[in-house]
Write a structure and sequence with these properties.
Distance between the termini: 10 Å
Shape: globular
Radius of gyration: 19 Å
Number of domains: 2
Helix content: 40-55%
Number of helices: 12
Number of strands: 5
Strand order of the largest sheet: 1-2-5
Order of helices and strands: HEHHEHEEHHHEHHHHH
Length: 258
């Protein structure tokens, strides 16, 4: 679905972009595709795919692409007009509830991540928002999530002592940036199919490239998300990310018919 066709996004976006945007987009030397990353929306998978298309090789450490931005080129010399006229610019969104739960497992539940200090988790734990020893206790995990989403809601309203972090900023922050550039808006929930449909005219072997990439950022889940989520928690997440939810539902309805 093209960004300018999304009514819920149009209602909150400016009709033009007042800065050169190519420097923010990932691309390859051979294939003029343009990707704008949103965190917790499959970015590890997509950036590793772009790396594979750029180099012909898999990245040995799939998470290295988050540590070294030079591994994938930026479209710094491409104009906004070129981007707007390209059928191969894309951004990936995600169900806001699933995105929050991914944030919880990946960033909030532990003071360490892959053996290294995790500043975000440390803050949530030290401030009593998250009990890292919830173990298999579904109720404790639910309490952790409710505490966290309530705090995030306040943070996004500027009512905490912390800056807004890109891991929990609304997806609309970057969707509004790409709105006027006619981006393809894809969904993580059916990403392989949508990538193939979008990019196959440019990259005939895109399906094979996707098959070659196994990189995913999958965090341990002490208990399943569906067990934690109840009506109260779902509503808190939906209320916090109301614009994201409207846009996601509109895009999902479009892709169901494709």
């Amino acid at each position: 679905m093209i960004s300018t066709d999304i009514a819920a996004l149009r209602a909150i976006s400016k009709p033009t972009l007042d800065r050169r945007y190519g420097i923010s987009l990932m691309t390859t030397d051979e294939y003029p595709l343009y990707y704008r990353m949103i965190t917790k929306c499959g970015c590890t998978t997509v950036i590793n795919l772009i790396y594979y298309l750029h180099t012909g090789q898999q990245q040995q450490d799939p998470n290295a692409i988050h540590k070294n931005e030079d591994l994938v080129p930026k479209a710094e010399y491409v104009t906004n007009t070129q981007i707007r006229n390209s059928p191969y610019s894309f951004i990936v969104i995600r169900n806001p509830i699933k995105r929050f739960m991914s944030l919880y497992y990946d960033k909030l539940l532990s003071p360490t991540q892959r053996g290294k200090p995790n500043r975000i988790g440390k803050y949530f734990i030290e401030n009593g928002l998250v009990d890292p020893n919830a173990g298999q206790d579904v109720d404790k995990h639910r309490e952790n999530c409710i505490n966290s989403i309530k705090w995030i809601n306040k943070n996004l309203a500027g009512q905490t002592d912390q800056k807004k972090n890109f891991h929990w900023r609304p997806q609309t922050m970057r969707l509004k940036q790409v709105y006027s550039l006619n981006f393809n808006v894809l969904m993580l929930e059916d990403l392989n199919y949508q990538l193939i449909k979008t990019l196959s005219p440019l990259i005939p072997h895109i399906a094979e490239a996707i098959e070659a990439i196994s990189a995913k950022n999958v965090s341990p889940k002490p208990v399943p998300a569906d067990a934690i989520l109840d009506d109260t928690l779902r509503q808190l997440i939906t209320d916090t990310y109301s614009d994201d939810t409207k846009i996601y539902n509109e895009v999902a309805a479009y892709w169901r018919d494709q």
